[in-house]
Specification:
Layout: H1 2-9, E1 11-12, E2 18-19, H2 22-48, H3 57-60, H4 72-83, H5 87-95, H6 100-127, H7 134-141, H8 144-174, H9 186-213, H10 218-238, H11 245-261, H12 268-293, E3 306-307, E4 310-311, H13 312-320, H14 327-335, H15 347-371, H16 383-395, H17 402-436, H18 448-453, H19 456-471, H20 475-503, H21 512-538, H22 544-572
Antiparallel strand pairs: 1-2, 3-4
Helix pairs in contact: 2-6, 2-15, 4-12, 4-15, 5-13, 5-15, 5-16, 6-14, 6-15, 6-20, 7-8, 7-20, 8-11, 8-17, 8-19, 8-20, 8-22, 9-10, 9-12, 9-17, 10-12, 11-17, 11-19, 12-15, 12-17, 13-20, 13-21, 14-20, 15-16, 16-17, 17-19, 20-21, 20-22, 21-22
Length: 580
């Protein structure tokens, strides 16, 4: 029946060529991803073992700051909104130059067997180890040197995330148009910028309301959140904010400073919770639009193994990044989500489930860019603008003004990017602090220099400063390096998780193929990027703040990646069973 429906929905173009209906792609993705979650996700949970009666770190280390027992929906909201940022929209759109078939295949295969396994594994390992970060877990099972190298790698990676996403958000707020879609106006982007800034204030207000009132019924909490979002949207539409790109970069950096140092309950948790409603609205709107429009995929099905000098391997994999597998997700799973899980039985939905839905979002982004493609490839414009303008075009079927729809969609994708940014800023700050922690985190027992370096305000300023410098390179130049570092981080986490599972007597062989594939992909991509940077530098076409900094970061990432991978693999093949 399903196959018959797919056959019925295939299109034939006026010239007689067979084309694919975007709705078929979405339906296939929903079936495959849903089956993967129900079968493979649950199988992993049964093999690793969950104890619903065990006290989680959220209770054993409750401090009102980072360790806060939260409902399953709240933790899922935080995990989903943090990991499903700009990546699942940006990656598939940029990678679509290779054709929609290879992008779709990697989103489904990578999401189920690589990304979701890593996310769930990192969350599981952290909860089983008192909510410790991946760095601390590596120290326990691999050694202190491994932890130091891993944390330095993580810190460098967070700089790339901040640089890429900050530049993308700022460029979108300025109002870059989309080729062939003149209705995506500067007003829509500026209104979305205004709403995004109001969102910060509204999130703090919502956080204070929750703190004052205490535990609310879930439906009451949802109604309050949605009401605040509606008010915020109306005000933002009336008061658009116009500023230069550099000004927006400074504003975003200032926000990241606040997000990094403020308590979780005051800004990040309420913002993440509210963002989830926006995200669901965006996904539902996009899916309904696809159903109503039945968009034809104007993208090439397959453009070749070499497109404009970029090879499908490894470029496709590191470009899609977060939509299939992302090392950053492990930092969210072990850095924040593990500290708020109330019951171990919630972990499959939070860890595995959030990644599955993110892969679906990546598929939707692929269908959207396929619908607005020009001459078989993606149109010009930032990925955010392309996605927003594309979905807004679908909304015309319902009589919704394109301008209003564009504002809503731009607001949603920008909110997602900012949510990922605030998480990565906090994780970057914590990674920097962990680099300089010794045997204790008690500042009263530290020498003066160590107190300064582990101070959260100092660590945040240093992290944001270097992130800003990399922003000067622009997201187009940063994204390949970000994608490579992101996937290499995933490979290192997968190896570390394999060590943890083997050491504690759990099933870990399912991680072996993903970790070796990702090592091959990422080292190839980093070598290619380094050669390209050397070519620019030797040809006299480079500037230090762009190519020079990226070259230094690329070399550091490769060296650190080799050292951490060697330490983890050596331990993997010599590990003996011990207590979790």
């Amino acid at each position: 029946m399903f196959l018959s429906l797919c056959k019925y929905l295939r299109r034939e173009s006026p010239n007689g060529e067979k084309t694919m209906n975007g709705l078929v792609i979405v339906l296939i993705a929903i079936v495959v991803l849903g089956a993967g979650y129900l079968l493979y996700g649950r199988w992993l949970a049964s093999k690793w073992g969950l104890d619903p009666k065990a006290k989680t770190p959220a209770y054993t280390h409750e401090d009102g700051q980072d360790y806060v027992p939260s409902s399953k929906l709240t933790v899922f909201a935080h995990q989903f909104s943090s990991i499903a940022g700009a990546g699942p929209v940006t990656g598939p759109i940029l990678a679509s130059v290779f054709g929609w078939v290879p992008v779709l295949l990697w989103l489904l295969i990578g999401g189920l067997f690589f990304g979701a396994v890593q996310d769930f594994g990192a969350l599981y390992a952290s909860v089983k180890n008192e909510g410790k970060s991946m760095g601390m877990i590596i120290e326990k099972y691999i050694g202190r040197t491994g932890r130091k190298l891993f944390m330095l790698f993580c810190w460098l990676f967070t700089l790339l995330v901040m640089a890429a996403f900050t530049d993308m958000v700022a460029g979108t707020f300025v109002g870059k148009g989309v080729e062939g879609m003149t209705k995506a106006t500067g007003y829509a982007n500026s209104a979305a910028a205004s709403i995004s800034m109001l969102f910060i204030v509204v999130a703090i207000i919502f956080g204070l309301i929750q703190k004052k009132v205490g535990k609310m019924k879930e439906w009451v909490r949802a109604v309050v959140a949605i009401a605040l979002l509606v008010v915020m949207f109306i005000i933002g539409m009336k008061l658009p904010m116009y500023a230069t790109k550099s000004t927006w970069i400074y504003i975003v950096m200032a926000y990241l400073f606040l997000a990094s140092v403020m308590p979780m309950w005051l800004l990040m948790e309420p913002r993440d919770y509210m963002t989830t409603f926006m995200l669901l609205g965006m996904i539902i709107g996009a899916v309904v639009g696809v159903i109503a429009e039945h968009p034809t995929m104007k993208l090439n099905a397959f453009s070749g193994f070499n497109v404009d000098g970029s090879y499908l391997f490894p470029t496709l994999f590191v470009t899609i990044a977060c939509g299939a597998v992302s090392g950053f997700h492990s930092l969210v799973s072990s850095g924040t989500s593990s500290k708020t899980i109330s019951n171990e039985k919630d972990m499959p939905m939070v860890g595995y489930g959030a990644m599955v839905v993110e892969s679906l979002l990546g598929v939707i982004a692929l269908v959207v860019v396929g619908a607005v493609a020009v001459n078989g490839t993606k149109p010009e414009g930032t990925p955010f603008s392309i996605f927003s303008a594309g979905v807004a075009g679908f909304f015309e079927k319902f009589g919704i003004p394109v301008q209003v729809a564009t504002v809503f969609m731009t607001m949603c994708v920008s909110a997602l990017a900012l949510t990922s940014l605030d998480s990565v800023a906090r994780i970057g700050r914590m990674s920097f602090q962990e680099l300089f922690y010794g045997d204790t985190t008690d500042t009263s027992k530290m020498p003066g220099w160590q107190k300064v370096l582990t101070n959260k305000y100092f660590a945040t300023i240093i992290t944001l400063f270097f992130g800003y410098l990399l922003t000067l390179g622009g997201y187009n130049n940063i994204w390949p390096l970000f994608g490579s570092a992101n996937q290499l981080l995933a490979a290192l986490v997968l190896i570390a998780l394999a060590v943890f599972l083997k050491t504690t007597g759990r099933t870990g062989w399912t991680l072996y193929i993903p970790m070796f594939v990702m090592l091959a992909v990422t080292f190839t991509a980093l070598i290619q990027k380094t050669i390209a940077l050397v070519s620019n530098i030797s040809g006299g076409q480079a500037t230090f703040l762009v190519d020079g900094l990226q070259f230094i970061v690329a070399i550091l990432l490769m060296v650190l990646g080799v050292l951490v991978a060697f330490s983890c693999l050596k331990k993997l093949f010599t590990a003996k069973k011990q207590e979790a």
